């Protein structure tokens, strides 16, 4: 499950006997953004480890989204935004 790779924020999407219809959309927006950030970071590191010569940077659009997510996470971490404000901005960013 998600905890094995350190992304326990995704556990609400884990199907179990009591939640057989769990999905990606059951993950709270804030947790989803953190999980996406960590997943992207791990993916980038893995690509560099596996084959540095074939690594492709994210598209311009994807890089813009990643930049926005990191900026919001940083603003919340530094206290510029409250967690609620950060959650609201992320929800608007992804039209959730």
How would you describe this structure to a colleague?
- This protein has 96 residues and is mainly alpha-helical.
- It has three helices and no strands.
- α2 runs antiparallel to α3.
Q: Which structural class is indicated by helix and strand composition?
A: mainly alpha
Beta-strand content:
under 5%
**Oligomeric description of these chains:** single chain
The major beta sheet can be summarized as: none
Shape: globular
| N-to-C span | 25 Å
According to DSSP, the number of beta strands is 0
Q: Poorly predicted ranges (pLDDT <50, ≥5 residues)?
A: none
Number of helices: 3
**Average residue pLDDT:** 82
What is the radius of gyration?
A: 15 Å
Helix share bin: 40-55%
Element pattern in H and E:
HHH
Short note summarizing the structure:
With 96 residues, this protein is mainly α.
Secondary structure blueprint with pairings:
Blueprint: H1 29-50, H2 60-77, H3 83-93
Helix pairs in contact: 2-3
Summary tags:
96 residues, mainly alpha, 3 helices, globular
């Amino acid at each position: 499950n998600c905890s094995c790779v350190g992304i326990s924020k995704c556990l609400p999407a884990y199907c179990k006997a009591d939640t057989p219809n769990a999905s990606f959309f059951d993950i709270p927006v804030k947790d989803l953004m953190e999980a996406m950030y960590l997943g992207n970071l791990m993916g980038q590191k893995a690509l560099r480890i596996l084959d540095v010569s074939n690594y492709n940077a994210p598209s311009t659009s994807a890089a813009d989204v990643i930049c926005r997510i990191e900026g919001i996470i940083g603003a919340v971490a530094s206290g510029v935004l409250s967690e609620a404000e950060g959650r609201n901005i992320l929800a608007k960013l992804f039209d959730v």
